[in-house]
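Support request, priority: normal
Reporter: lab tech (M.K.)
Component: structure prediction queue

Hi team, I submitted a job for Putative oxidoreductase from Novosphingobium kunmingense yesterday, and the status page still shows it as pending. I've pasted the exact input below so you can check whether something in the sequence is tripping the parser. The sequence length should be 301 residues. Please let me know if I need to resubmit or if it's stuck on your end.
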Amino acid sequence: MSQLPLPKTVRLGRDGPSFAPLSWGMWRFAGRSRADAAALVHAALDAGITLLDTADIYGFDGTSGFGDAEALLGEVLAAEPGLRDRMVLATKGGIRPPLPYDQSPAYLAEAIDASLRRLKVERIDLWQIHRPDILAHPQETARALDAARVAGKIGEVGVSNFTQLQIAALGAFIGRPIATTQPEISPLRIDCIENGELEQATVLGLVPMAWSPLGGGRLAEPATAREKAVAAALDAVANDRGVSRTVAAYSWLMAHPAGIVPIVGSQQAERIAEAARALTVQWTREEWYAVLVASRGEKLP
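Reply from support: The job had stalled in the queue. We restarted it manually and it finished. Here are the results:
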């Protein structure tokens, strides 16, 4: 049976840093001690997972905690400055409770500066618009992001939860090509695989970063017939390769030629380290399509 290529190193933008096609997300990072937080950062970096993805909204509980995840990571970096050079630092902004979204030039500048202060760094490698602001003109948004990049505050620009047309609109005005897109992709959420989003990413040179790659935990405890079918298709490969279903799910995404980078959401050091095994799992076409068929719930035409 034909083997799909193993995932390759990914480059951020045209000339940015390279990193393994797996990242660690910090949505549930806030609320722990600095020592515990540092242990998680070390777990990711030691496993070869060097892109760390956070956001200013992470830690917000609806009333308080805005910026807490960034601030905690900033404490870790201040205590161990050498860690900064080992990572590709990514964060997001543009969600502004209770608006909820704001990509006006003034707020973008404010949000980027605030993230820099909380993270205690001079530059963010990848700054992403977290969700699109329908009321923001893409030309004005592009100007604000270009200004931050020229000022050396950010390296590359990415988007999260943008449609294909929203990506094209921002891309038409921005001075430097958009580097990443962050949609929800998992073996249970295959919209991007079938609606052209990944093809657009390939054409434009965007790195697709998959949030919720385990289907919001549903792959761990499948309940519906469809979820159980997908889990069984993943288990067939996991059992054969001696890995967990979680690792199989990550590697299934990474086998796509668009170069999907799953965002590992676990806040357990051993699970973060385990995720790196996905870099070594190779799929056959037959195995890969079996998962897709199970997710679709019908045979391919």
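The mean pLDDT is 97. Residues 225-241 form the longest helix (17 residues). Let us know if anything else looks off. Ticket resolved.
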